Structure formats: structure tokens, C-alpha cells
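Appendix B: complex inputs.
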Amino acid sequence: MAELVHEASPFEQVNVLFDRAADRLGISDDLRELLRMPWRELRVEVPVRMDDGRLRVFIGYRVQHNGARGPYKGGVRYHPQADLDEVRALASLMTWKTAIADVPFGGAKGGVQVDPAELSEGELNRLTRMYTQNIAMLIGPTRDIPAPDLNTNAQTMAWMMDAYSRLHGHTPAVVTGKPVELGGSYGREAATGRGAIFALTSWARRAQVNPQGMTMAVQGFGNAGYWAARCAQEAGLRVVAVSTSKGGVYDPEGLDLDRLSKCYKETGSLAAYEQGDQITNAELLALPVDLLCPAALGGVLAGDNADQVRARVILEAANHPVTPAGDEVLNRKGVVVLPDVLVNAGGVIVSYFEWAQNFQEFRWEESRVNEELWLRMRQAVDQVYDRAQQERVTLRDAAFIIAVERVARAVELRGFV
Ligand code: NAD
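Resulting structure:
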């Protein structure tokens, strides 16, 4: 059985977690069917005229999983493996994440199967506009609000907003994670990483663990990973390893993140960082650290490598970095896993603030954004922690129980079933 689960697709893996929560809550078969499957899925061709005059056709998706609690919400990723199953899994995770964070959104996700490193800036601009145009009938400020994810950023959101606004008039609230100059929120860029550290410190307070001086390894040095590492250092942790797709660096004395970031921006890798040891991503996952923070791809800790983890705590800044089989191994080893749907909710929480600010045509100071993010993260962690204790389940199962309960209630109240 464990073998079967290990080999399941990402969407099936999320549904293993959903089913466990639905079992506990006694959700009826009818409602279960409705909650499990996405509400709507769109596949589009994205033709792009390349700089050399050739036409390349990419495939894109937008999946809307559940909208009972509010407009659909979820990022857009550019990645060669962003297929329909992965986008479904991520859309479903967004439904549960927005419910746990208690922001008034449903769950969605988008993806384009492309390696953006192969495209010029102009090609990426054209790809983003064409993708936006082709999903424009589904999105909108009260319908579905995209945001950045893997390999997309504030610039991508600016292009999306512009493409949508050309069709519908100036509409900043159609996407979040925009540049501040175009209606983005202060603090949104850092929000996922900062929220992850707020989740860690909130959990540590409840579990009576002192995070000060903990050593930390971070896989991925993009938006989520960089800011998680930065905020961890500010909170008194020692970041000893980080990595990118090309490998990482480990220095038990601690890393200079500013220098690493400069090196990554200038050379596209961390290889030129002269202190510490160069390591592979597999080595990073097995380092002797207190805290391991996967902040890149999904499925990196599975049944066949989770046993090598030496960290005591896993902080899931990435989405679904641990498979159900990996989870089982980590639970058996007594490793505490702080789950993605809780830990990386800071991104969607500040996206909610950005969206609300756009409607009000008003801007909050960064200090207010961070304060409100802290309050919401702490509340969500407290609720998950309490539920885990009451039900004697893991934090991941407790998070799913709360989420499924909230979404099921909204579906029933609206009279869908
Ligand atoms: P990003 O594109 O900004 O950065 C991704 C980083 O991961 C890069 O440093 C890249 O080199 C590295 N990476 C890529 N492939 C890798 C591999 N095979 N091994 C190791 N590292 C690899 O992306 P991001 O926005 O930081 O997203 C990272 C994760 O966080 C994703 O799982 C995403 O879904 C999740 N997440 C992001 C946000 C957000 O607001 N950006 C919110 C919630 C969750």
C-alpha cells in the first residue's frame, strides 16, 4: 500500500490527505466527490513568435478547484513539468490553504509548460500576454486572481495585469504580487518566506522550543527560499546551507546571504561563492541541521530518501515537498513536519491584503502588512496546533481537518448539495 501511495500522482497524493480528513469529519460520499475534484479546468495553446522568427506553441492550464469561500486564488508557474495533474494538485492545495489561513478565497492554480531560462525577456512578455488573453474569460478581480509562483514574479504579474486591462479597462485587482509601482503591496515579495518564519516561531512558542541558534538548510534560493533564509537570520537562526537547481553551498559557520544573493543574480548559480563547501541538492536534504526548509519543487522527500533526513523539524515553504510515503517515514522518525498549507500561506495572506488595498485604492505601510501577517499566521498555527492535540494527529492532518471542515461548511451553506 505504501508503495502505491509513493507512486501516486501529485493530485492523488493531495487526495490521500483530503480523504483522511474527510474520514475523520464523516463527510458524505456525495460531498466528498464534489470537494475532491476541480470545479473547472482550462487547457490552452500559447503560441509565441520567438526572437528568431519561429513560432513555438506552449501548453498552459488554469484549474479552478473550489470557489465556495470566495473568488478562486492561486499562482501561475512556468515549468516544463507543469502538467495538468500537477496544476490540479496545486489548485487543490490552494483551496485548503486559503481555508486554513481564513482568507475569503477559493483555490486555483495555473501553469505553462516552459523552461523560462530558454526564453528572452521579450519572448516571456509575449508568452505571458498570450496565456493571459487565453484564460481571460476565467479570471477577474471577483472571479479568479492569479499570483506569482515558481519561475514567475512581479514583472510577470505586471504583464498579466496589462494584458487583462487592455481587454477590461485598468484592473489592478486581477492579479496580486504586482510591483509596488503598479498597485502591489509593500511586503508581498517577502511574504511567503516571512510567513514561513512566523509559522516556525509561532509553533516554537507552543511546542516550547527555542528557535534561536537553530541551524537551518534551505533548498531553493528564489522568492520563498531567499526570504525564508533572510527572515530566519533576522529571527536568530543560523542559515548554514542554501541551494538552487544547480546545486548548493554549505558552511557550518553560517552563510552571508547578501553575498550569495549577489552571486546568484550575477552568475545564475552559487558556484562562485568561495566560502564553505559546494554540495548537491540530495546532500543538502541530508545535512546535520536542526531545521530543513524545502523551498523549491514538490516531491523532493519521498519514501526512498526521507530516511536520510537528519533535521528535527521540516518547514515546508514549497508546495507538497514531502510525499505521503515520505511523510510516513518522517513521522516514524519523530521529525516534526510543519505543513505547506500552513507554512507558505503568508503569500496568499498578503495577496489578500494587496487585493483589498486595490479595491480601496489605498496603500498600507509595510509595518502594518507585516503586523497583520504575523497575527494571521499565529492564529492559524494556534488553531492547527490545538486541533492536532485534540485529535491526536499530525500538524498536516490537523490542518487538512480544519480546511475540509471550513470548505464543506461553505459548500453546504451555499446550497450546492
Ligand atoms: P522561484 O522561481 O522564485 O525560486 C525557485 C528556486 O528553486 C530557485 O532558486 C531555483 O533555482 C530553485 N530550484 C528549481 N529547481 C530546483 C531543484 N530541482 N532543486 C533545487 N532547487 C531548485 O519560486 P518560488 O516562488 O520561490 O517558489 C518555490 C516554491 O514555493 C514552490 O513550491 C512554490 O509553489 C512555493 N510557493 C511560492 C509562493 C510565492 O509567493 N512565490 C507562495 C507559496 C508557495
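Residues 148-151, 192, 219-225, 243-245, 281, 295-297, 317-319, 344, 347 surround nicotinamide-adenine-dinucleotide (CB under 6 Å).
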